[in-house]
Specification:
Blueprint: H1 14-46, H2 69-80, H3 84-87, H4 91-111, E1 129-131, E2 136-137, H5 142-159, H6 165-199, E3 203-205
Antiparallel strand pairs: 1-2, 1-3
Length: 206
Amino acid sequence: MFSLTLEFKLKPTVAQIAVFEDWVEQYPKVYNYTLKERKDWYNSRKCQINSCSKSSEYLIPTDGSLPTYSIQCKALTTYRKTSPALLRVNAVLLQQTRLRLEKSFVTMWEQSHGFPRFKKQGTLRSFFIATSNGLLIKRTSFFAEAERKLKLRQKRVTRKKIVLNNRKRAAEKVVLLHEYVANCRKNWHRKLSDQICDNAGKLFCI
């Protein structure tokens, strides 16, 4: 008895690729503008009252409130109505971009991480899935979870001498970790595709 397994890959059309690329181009712009708005507010509050520098500090009114997540979301909704570039982007994705920045600030406060950094073009390229029955599936982060282990193993490789077998074994552990992450991602995709095909009537990839 034979068991056949079929694997399919979705290939967007040229028009769909253009739409996705346009969305991806707007992500860093929204993220960086939001971050700059908060950074300017913090910089305007950290200088001394008797030695404020006009060249290095931002002058914001003292009664100006901190641009929180909710305030920035409302401002984005208002500005989006007048921006043709943002009107082409799904509103949920723009809110997720703001939420990602909010999580970075929460991590900074609770876990003593560094101040969030500006994003370069091409760094935010992940989408999430929403089905017709209300199921929302966020993007995965298999590599992010294994990144710390990968850094440690790569450091061990560089510290070993090239002529020794210990370096070869350390390099093999790095390869195995990459394979483990790839297998986890592939297994997750297969289970997710089965769940979606069995339970969803329509599928929207946004």
